[in-house]
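Entry type: protein chain
Record version: 2
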Amino acid sequence: MGRRLVPTLLITLLLLLHAQLWLGRGSLPKVAQLRADLSDQLQKNEQFQQANSQLEAEVQDLKEGLEMVEEKARMELGMVKTNEIYVQMSR
């Protein structure tokens, strides 16, 4: 019985380690999923960085000149100066 105890114990430990590798918290499928999630998040972060850069440039333009303010007012709010005629065309 003593001769079988050590190999049985070692095989049991090996099976437990193997199960942890495939099914546990740090398993290979879980790591692959986390890597995919990380890749997706990095891509989203890049998109948000680009949007932030555009917004920063727009804010800088708004701070520097009134032309951008006038353009925004005309496009978004329908601003019309005196002695101008506003024509709206529908498609």
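Comment: The CA atoms of residues 74 and 83 lie 15 Å apart.
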